[in-house]
Here is the input.
Amino acid sequence: MTRTTGPTAAGSGSPVPAGLAVADTAAVSDALDMLGLDGCLPGLSHLSGRGFVAGPAFTLRYEPVDEGEPGPAGDFLDDVPPGSVVVIANAGRTGATVWGDVLSRVARHRAVAGTVIDGVCRDIGGSRETGYPVWARGVFMRSGKNRVRLSAVGATVEVCGVAVAPGDLVCADESGVVVVDRRHAERVAELAADIRDREQRIVTAALAGRSLAAARREFGYHALARPVRNKPGHP
Here is the structure.
């Protein structure tokens, strides 16, 4: 699997933990479950690029403009560090786009890791041609110019109902997008690496003739899940 990993978490000076750099979103999601944390971004589809991406979030927020008010294209790409994942909060709007193939081509050239949009993109053929990774709610051709405008750069934003702060680690692949609060990144990375190791051992054992149920028991598969919280008054 192709992997693109950002070198540092913005504002932290810490590298992307090794366990996240070689993970997948399923393992990261399971690790968050084990810690009782959330970070999965529902409703986003993988639209272009290949493989797994991990990098610090570079956050943006868009807002609508009234009829007749200016809303130029957002000029932010020159400020995005290499290895970062652009995270765009556009409130899930599907009637106007905030990303297209011009941005994808330049971002790819500048080693930006990928783009995640709570909204839609356009010119997806160009993004696919250049191999630039994009996740969004869908594809639509209508420009966002004079419909929405860039209102915040580098702020904590809400994406698909999840708060994303600058420098939080974004992990994305064909299954979707997961955001890891940078304060928990090391622990999530450790758990994700352990999960992947156990799953590989289970597969190896099953392919060698063990029953899948026995292999799962041996390597603790059922412990790799969201903790069960008992209802009040129940043991």
